[in-house]
Amino acid sequence: MSKIKIKQIRSKIKRPGYQKKTLEALGLRRVGHIVEHKSDPSIMGMIKKVEHLIKIID
Length: 58
What we know:
Number of domains: 1
CATH class: Alpha Beta
Strand content: 25-35%
Number of strands: 3
Structural class: alpha+beta
Order of helices and strands: EHEHE
Helix content: 25-40%
Radius of gyration: 10 Å
Largest sheet: 3 strands, antiparallel
Distance between the termini: 15 Å
CATH architecture: 2-Layer Sandwich
Strand order of the largest sheet: 2-1-3
């Protein structure tokens, strides 16, 4: 499986709890923070839930 880099581009303030917990599960802590994950179905599902708060870096 390939690796993908995820960058948080928007704040989690005033977001529903499930979105905050999803960002935490992805390892994103603050705006501008970048993490790297394997591209598996569980990670892709989390990305889909918060796609408006993050950006995928190639």
